[in-house]
Amino acid sequence: MERIRTTLVYVLLTLVTAVALFPIGYMLLIAGGEGERFAEGGQTLFPETAGEMPGNLASNLDTVMTDGTLDFRRYLRNTLLVAILAVSGTVVSSAMVAYAFARVRWSGSKPLFMLMLATMMVPFPVIMVPLFTMFRELGLIGTFGPLWVPAWFGNAFSIFLMRQFFMTIPRELDDAARIDGCGHFGIFRHIMLPLATPALLVVALLHFMFVWNDFVGPLIFLSHRDQFTLALGLQLFMSRLGTTPWHLLMSATTLMVGPVLVLFLLTQRSFVEGISTSGTKG
Amino acid sequence: MKRDGFLTFLPWAAPWLAGFMLFTALPVGLGIWYAFTDYTLLEPPIMVGTKNFARLADDPILGTVAWNTFFFGLLSIVVGTVLSIALAVLLSKPARFQAFWRSAVFVPSVLPLIAVAAIFKLGFDGELGAANQMLGLIGVEGPNWFGSGAWAWAALLMMSLWGVGPAVVIYLAGLRDVPKQLHEAASLDGVGSWGRFVHVTLPMISPVILFNVVIGIINAAQVFVVPLVMTGGGPGRSTYFFAMYVYDQAFQYGDMGYASVLGLVQFAAILVLTGLVLLLGQRFVYYRGA
User: Do B122 and A106 count as a contact with CB atoms less than 8 A apart?
Assistant: First the structure.
């Protein structure tokens, strides 16, 4: 009985994993296909020439990156530029604000913290129109500005995560630093930041993923193809699906999925901790 | 302990305080104002009173998008909750390579939605897609997925279920916190594993269920990217959802006033629904120490 039960667990785990990973495998399968075969009536699930797939994928990726009408190299560059500006902004500003909520003793800080948590409830479609008109007044529509400037004003979720982490740092360390003549800046610089490096990395990682994956922001705020991010570029490519070859579309998709997948595999523990923190202590 | 004043707090919190004013409070305020105006971006907003609100009453599309959003949300939350609890229970069983199984279930949810949509769009292609090719292997002729409302819904639902990873992780944390003694005590009393699940596990993780349902409502109310690129709302308006309608009113038809009204309706709906769920939660959720 026990044996059957254990076997059943493994069978189910294998099944679930297969379903979870199948679409990623399918993407790679198509991305490793060849143009000519598609012309002859499409890819099947069972490629006859599996050995050629890595080579095909490499050449398909090259086409997607460099072909003048696809130009995914430009989308990649745009995405990375926005990501660098937005991630650095979020980390710097959120760390400051998180310090305020964790360590500066002012009576109004608790209600403000609650207010900040409440802002996470405001759905984007509600502020979408006013944000558009505001950035339009400022002449920032069609620039990267709307995608990274707000990040420098602190991100509620990042502040929350960092504040939770700062709270776990013993206050005795602050007191010791204070005796040595440190003020708030000294404590922040010499105690909080070094000890909270893992939390800063988690926030940087999660925000990078957000920017990389974001579709709605670029859709509303960007207007020229030259400025498109990967998400918009992929949508543009998809919208011409009737005429786009599948293997190139899936190669472009691989270009977008690959880095996220690698980052996740390298950092999964932080990821899962970030999610759990938001869930169990929120 | 020495207390700091507001003047010490201010410089540290300044980025968020300014950001809150600029990117949350001001837009919400402007949105409320736009709701009472005629605003097409070409000219400054003109006050029109409650005209935009009156339009809600005889907007035939509004009923469709509200119903689609509500019903799809209900479906994906109910099925998603059952599935993610089941997965969490499975993943909490002692097994080799546990980290691997858990990561595999989580992976889909970190992928960009637009990339996921691209993969599933091909996967559900009527002729060459993986779904129909596999159905063909067992002798079943697959449907033209995006050709009918019901099948398009089925495809969208499967996609949304594919991303249950975060909920599973949160349930796993909840399961870990269920005291072992309770299970042992119930076993001694002769309660079987299903009975223990219903009478011990479920009540103990009910706060986590409530949390996930609330998050589910907030997300479901904003479904946008996937249907936009997968179905474009079609066929007909069968997969046309609320957030897509707000977007179209604003950026396709340029009616910022009416779009703002719709945004407020959406916000109100989220608040009312989460409020109702939290009220229900007071009756059915068991809080330790409460």
Answer: no
